[in-house]
Amino acid sequence: MSTVTRTRFAPSPTGFIHLGNIRSALYPWAFARSTGGAFILRIEDTDVERSSQAAVDVIIEGMRWLGLDYDEGPVYQMQRMDRYKAVLAELQAAGQVYPCYMSVAELDVLREQQMADKLKPRYDGTWRPEPGKTLPPMPEGVLPVLRFKNPQGGAVVWDDKVKGRIEISNDELDDLVIARPDGTPTYNFCVVVDDMDMGITHVIRGDDHVNNTPRQINIFRALGKDVPVYAHLPTVLNEQGEKMSKRSGAKAVTQYAKEGYLPDAMVNYLARLGWSHGDDEIFSREQFLQWFNLDHLGKSAAQFDEAKLRWVNAQHMKAMADDKLAELVVPFLNAHAQTSFDAARRVAACALLKDRCSTLVELAEWMDVLVSEEPVSAEDIKAHVPAEIAPPVARLAELLAHCEWSKAGIAAVIKQVLGEAGLKMPQLAMPVRVLVAGRPQTPSLDALLSLMDRANVISRLGRLKSA
Ligand code: GLU
Description:
This protein is mainly alpha-helical. The chain has helices spanning about 20-35, 55-65, 80-95, 105-115, 185-195, 215-220, 255-260, 265-270, 285-290, 305-320, 320-330, 335-340, 345-355, 360-370, 380-385, 390-400, 405-420, 425-435, 445-450, 455-465, and strands spanning about 5-10, 40-45, 70-75, 95-100, 145-150, 155-160, 165-170, 175-180, 200-205, 230-235, 235, 300-305.
């Protein structure tokens, strides 16, 4: 019997979402898309103190930017409290849950004693009802927590798609608190009820949750439900080799949109950060979805590398159709450039410049240069433009005023000036580049000038006299 795959991304909106977090959305999304299944967004907002709508907004915006579309949700856990309580009542009716009146002070004493005896601190089952066992007298005025009757003896075993077979002895697991004294259900219980109700077939999440899994599996079983497949992804480290976090300088995922990265490049980069398809480094979103499976997830922690991200982005920019790039770059252009370029010139500029840019921000900076009317600094002129070049530059300006304004027309004029002045190309090109573009390195001069405005070029060349 074939099951339709259902996966989910279940972020806690307690801080902004960085690249390490969003990778935990990318893989379940890709798995659902590549298997024709469904992908669900669930917001785990039960930590009311630390959760915020602003964090939810960044999650949603980041996913939208990356094109990680979801079929259901966002489902907010806080809106499902009644459902959790109903399932809790079922478990209680089935005798799988019991009230525990042990106070925090008593728990502390127990823990200290266990630690002194070199034992792992764990609840000792004082209030767990057993046939023939007499429970302690119920203290007055104490609201109990509810504990889950973890199976005794045996082990929880699962075949993790990343980590392989994992076996945890039930004796390692004490009876988990699944409802607080005020009746609110606790984290692990809500997760199981959600995964069960949502029909999740594959739980793909960070390996910081691997310790919760045996507990969650036992709750699934107590509810008489099939256990999903688990894949626990290794951590993403930052460039310093620490766990990626806001505190250690990670940026919000949406920041990369502002820095001019392409969503497809980011998907490509993140996909490779913990998964591989042979030696392929650059691939499209479609290829990724064609290739993705859970069998090639990496076992060791992946390390973020901004230089590689820039390189991947540059490759995607190069491969992108010029007219598409010309649309994407618009928001990055300054106000003057936005009005100065017509569509055709913008496309031509992208074609000329994209090979030398790693981000849309860099491309926009270059395009701004093409239409800029700001004077080149006197220092730059001094550093790169020798005084003796003034006559050929003046001659170039004179000829450019009347030539055909095309790459070929401009090339012919440059050739003529070189011939007349007995100069080699770099002797003229370098000063002209600095005068017109404010930088000594540019694409070929004829192509560059043809994308600039004739009057602007001539006035820029004229600055040499006044400098
Ligand atoms: N809310 C958890 C987190 O943000 C994820 C829980 C899960 O995927 O099961 O780390």
